[in-house]
TrEMBL record, chain A:
Residues 9-231 form the ABC transporter domain. The keyword Disulfide bond does not apply. This is ABC transporter related protein. Keywords: ATP-binding, Nucleotide-binding, Transport. It comes from Thermomonospora curvata (strain ATCC 19995 / DSM 43183 / JCM 3096 / KCTC 9072 / NBRC 15933 / NCIMB 10081 / Henssen B9). PROSITE patterns: ABC_TRANSPORTER_1, ABC_TRANSPORTER_2. InterPro entries: AAA+_ATPase (IPR003593), ABC_transporter-like_ATP-bd (IPR003439), ABC_transporter-like_CS (IPR017871), ABC_transpr_LolD-like (IPR015854), MacB-like_ATP-bd (IPR017911), P-loop_NTPase (IPR027417). GO terms for cellular component: membrane protein complex; plasma membrane. GO terms for molecular function: ATP binding; ATP hydrolysis activity; transmembrane transporter activity. The keyword Protein biosynthesis does not apply.
Length: 231, 407
């Protein structure tokens, strides 16, 4: 469906300024291209604007200037509805705080993403099973998140992000609430997903996480700079 | 088609709402309690009003609604000579009418100062009895006034035709005359004329004064006291026939001049019912409505708290691709479901209360079938209205506001 030549993400002078008596330049004009299969880390101190960039990439926030082409489609002028629909179809989120519904089983939590993507009920269980297998939690399908360890919870969240087969997975400090040992299990899954061709953007301040990616961006005071472009 | 894609499937919506509500069953019960009380009060109030109203009408049916009294009309001023005349065979004529269960004439006999005694003896020391009415009646009168006998029997057509010297006396009079057992053939004297007491009347539902009277057969009274014509006719009708009989009786009794007779009819039953119900209902319906309003605010408050608590969940759903409309509908349906649940429990409670109160009072419970159903629908409507504002708040929530707060 997607042309290989079309970048997944293409930013052209993308800007986000928070208005006020002293305007805050959360993101200064930025040009950025991310291709299919890229594994990108965005690092920076807190308040540097990395969350803003992630929210812009995830269509949760609107830029004040510039263009954002997602799969070649300009998103800046789209209605809230259309952006929400693109989110359901093209983007998967992994949050620091997991955001699992505590009273729903692991399988139900993963299936939630399919519901909003408009996948018929009958087709959901099979896709949920496959997504849980990819993160190695097929045996936990009927558990409640409260019975899982932190690493397992984050892997459920990863499965939820994957299950809709998104073009782009955005992870916001995915290991921020995990100790280094459990963080490792999550990062191994990211490595595997990258190997399978998934486009992955991770926001982190952890150099260990950033070190595993192929491409690193640094954001300082709203300015994005390329740190490493390997391979 | 694009529109359809944005609306969650009913099954999905139901599953999300059920999961959202069942997480906190205790809170759900407390939230629904206001609606439960309001709907229960409304259903029970209207049900009991209908039940009580029906009860009053039923008791009224028993006596007044089946009673018709026919009297000669007074042509002009009261005290003037009556215009019409009742025939002596009024009972026979009326009994031919369909709908008449019993009929009987009643006539007061002027006996002057004749003393009433059980022994024909001049006893200067005897206490003077109060004025005792002496009445002439046709054999059918007993049933026409719903008379009950304490002992003995009522006179029949034979006594009437033979002009037998028999009498039925009221229980009150019997006590004063020390007469208890008609089987012993006691006598009662009106002046010097002796009558055999054949029965003692315990009560007469339509003419209470009969229990202090001496009642003679028409034939006997006419023979002895020369009565001109009966004074009035009592008719006991089948239920629902009173108005018909009241129209027909004057013609049956005076075919040449039906207008010379007046038939007293029972009042319109429907009016009685409406009056009784209207009084009872107004205030209790008001109370029920009040508790419903309180219940509605309870639902609104809880749903709002729930929206605030679930900001994270809402932000997650939005980031997963839930439209604002889907979020709004979810919370709206949640609060409507609370209202619906309150309506179902409340309507059931109202029915139980109505039946229980009716059972205790030994009334017949009367409950319109639409009433509990309307109660349930009303509960759901209140839930829906109460959820409108919280749902709007949920839909307006910006996911980044929540996510930024977390990071």
């Amino acid at each position: 469906m997607t042309d290989r030549a079309t970048p997944v993400v293409e930013l052209q002078g993308l800007t986000r300024t928070y208005p006020g008596t002293v305007p805050v330049h959360a993101l200064r004009p930025t040009d950025l291209t991310i291709h299919k299969g890229d594994y990108v880390a965005i690092t920076g101190r807190s308040g540097s604007g990395k969350s803003t960039l992630l929210h812009l990439l995830g269509l949760l926030d609107r830029p004040t200037g510039g263009r954002y082409l997602l799969q070649g489609q300009d998103t800046a002028r789209l209605s809230d509805r259309a952006r929400t629909r693109l989110r359901a179809e093209l983007i998967g989120f992994v949050f620091q705080a997991f955001y699992l519904l505590p009273h729903r089983t692991v399988a139900e939590n993963v299936a939630l993403a399919l519901m909003y993507a408009g996948v018929p009920r009958g087709k959901r269980p099979e896709r949920v099973r496959r997504a849980l297998e990819r993160v190695g939690l097929a045996a936990r399908a009927d558990f409640y998140p409260t019975k899982l360890s932190g690493g397992e919870r984050q892997r459920v969240a990863v499965a939820r992000a994957l299950v809709t087969e998104p073009a782009l997975v955005l992870a916001d400090e995915p290991t921020g609430n995990l100790d280094s040992a459990t963080a490792e299990t999550v990062l191994e899954i990211f490595d595997m997903l990258h190997a399978q061709g998934l486009t992955l953007i991770v926001v982190t301040h952890d150099p260990v996480v950033a070190g595993r990616t192929r491409r690193r961006l640094r954001i300082d005071d709203g300015r994005v700079t390329e740190v490493t472009e390997s391979a | 088609m694009r529109f359809l894609r944005r609306i969650p499937l009913p099954a999905d919506l139901a599953a999300e709402v059920a999961a959202g509500l069942l997480v906190r069953p205790g809170r759900l019960a407390l939230t629904a309690a206001g609606t439960v009380l309001g709907i229960a009060a409304l259903v029970a109030t209207l049900g009991l009003a209908a039940t009580a109203g029906n009860h009053i009408v039923t008791r009224f049916d028993e006596l007044a609604a089946t009673e018709v009294v026919v009297q000669p009309a007074h042509a002009g001023e009261p005290g003037e000579e009556p215009a019409g005349v009742l025939p002596w065979d009024a009972q026979t004529r009326l009994e031919r009418l369909n709908g008449v269960r019993a009929a009987g004439t009643l006539t007061k006999i002027e006996t002057g100062d004749l003393p009433i005694r059980s022994v024909a003896l001049e006893d200067p020391l005897a206490a003077a009895l109060p004025q005792t009415p002496v009445l002439a009646a046709s054999p059918g009168l007993r049933h026409a006034v719903r008379g009950e006998l304490a002992a003995g029997r009522w006179f029949d057509r034979g006594h009437d035709a033979r002009r037998s010297r028999v009498a039925v006396i009221g229980q009150g009079l019997a006590r004063r005359l020390n007469i208890a057992q008609p089987a012993l053939r006691p006598a009662v004297f009106i002046g010097d004329e002796a009558f055999t007491v054949i029965g003692i009347l315990k009560s007469a539902a339509r003419e209470a004064t009969l229990t202090d009277s001496i009642i003679l057969p028409d034939g006997t009274a006419r023979d002895l006291y020369g009565l001109d014509h009966p004074e009035k006719v009592y008719i006991d009708t089948a239920i629902g026939a009173a108005r018909l009989i009241a129209r027909q009786a004057p013609t049956a009794l005076a075919p040449h001049a039906p207008d010379s007779l007046v038939a007293q009819m029972p009042p319109e039953p429907a009016l009685v019912r409406a009056r009784v119900s209207g009084d009872v209902q107004a205030m209790l319906v008001l109370l029920g409505g009040l508790s419903l309003i309180v219940g509605g605010f309870g639902i609104a408050n809880t749903t709002l708290v729930s929206v605030m608590e679930r900001r994270g969940e809402i932000a997650l759903r939005r980031s997963l691709g839930a439209q604002r409309r889907q979020i709004a509908v979810q919370f709206l349906v949640e609060s409507a479901a609370i209202g619906l649940l309150g309506g179902i429990v409340g309507a059931s409670l109202g029915v139980v209360v109505t039946v229980a109160v009716a059972a205790v009072q030994s009334w017949t419970p009367v409950l319109a079938a639409w009433l509990p159903l309307a109660g349930i629908g009303f509960g759901a409507l209140i839930g829906l209205l109460a959820g409108a504002y919280p749902a709007l708040r949920a839909a307006r929530l910006e996911p980044i506001d929540v996510l930024r707060g977390e990071g």
